[in-house]
Write a structure and sequence with these properties.
Elements (H helix, E strand, L loop, with lengths): L1 E2 L16 H8 L4 E5 L5 E4 L3 H18 L4 H13 L2 H14 L10 H17 L5 E8 L2 E8 L5 E9 L6 H14 L4 H4 L5 E10 L2 E8 L6
Helix pairs in contact: 2-5, 3-4
């Protein structure tokens, strides 16, 4: 980010403008300088992995306070995930993305953008106390993005997430996510636990929109 920083900012001035937030984060070490522009603005970046985790935790806390409170819509979203209702899932995620803070539409590398969406989705799914939600779990011949073990001992859910560089690439990215799940045999993780009613999700994100494809382990697709 490129922002103008006020090093002489006083305590009384902190909440007079939202722009002062960048000065506070810089002077307290939560952002560091990576250079200066020709106009005198500071080039800011997150200094290290530890601080990045702090930001991530703050985002998760924001989810708990602002999203998880709306239990009616969230419960409907969870049910849609169990049933494979892609239309309901897409509607909820797109609506939620459009109303959330702009941490997803950034200039970060594509891999880091995918991590942001991963945190976003994992936070929503982990709110269901009846599910065992695992993230980046070793499965088959790789690491699955998200695996859910629902209450039903026969059921299992696997999510593959992708970031699309352009909106027109959402469908293809969903297909790539499903293909990766299949090729790396992530479903073996659930089958080894006796779960054979498995649903696979390929979800692609682009800025504040997403596309969802679901495939059941028997090959049916919506």
């Amino acid at each position: 980010m490129e922002k103008f920083i006020r090093l002489e900012l006083t305590y009384d001035e902190i909440d007079t403008s939202i722009d002062n937030l960048w000065s506070v984060l810089f002077t307290t070490g939560y952002l560091t300088q990576a250079g200066v522009t020709e106009t005198g603005a500071y080039k800011l970046m997150i200094p290290n992995r530890e601080v990045r985790e702090v930001y991530k935790l703050q985002i998760q806390e924001w989810f708990r306070e602002n999203i998880l409170r709306n239990t009616k819509n969230l419960t409907a979203f969870w049910k849609a995930v169990e049933k494979g209702n892609t239309e309901c899932i897409e509607n909820y995620l797109n609506r939620t993305l459009s109303n959330t803070i702009s941490v997803f539409d950034t200039k970060a590398p594509d891999a880091e953008k995918e991590n942001s969406y991963h945190t976003f989705l994992a936070g929503l799914l982990a709110g269901n106390s009846n599910w065992l939600v695992r993230s980046n779990v070793e499965a088959g011949e790789g690491f699955a993005d998200i695996i859910i073990e629902p209450e039903d001992p026969d059921a299992g859910i696997i999510f593959g997430l992708k970031h699309a560089r352009v909106a027109s690439g959402l469908n293809k990215s969903c297909e790539n996510a499903i293909t990766q799940i299949r090729n790396r045999r992530y479903e073996e993780y659930l089958k080894n636990d006796g779960r054979n009613k498995i649903v696979l999700y390929g979800i692609a994100f682009y800025k504040k929109r997403c596309k969802v494809v679901v495939e059941r382990i028997n090959g049916e697709r919506d």
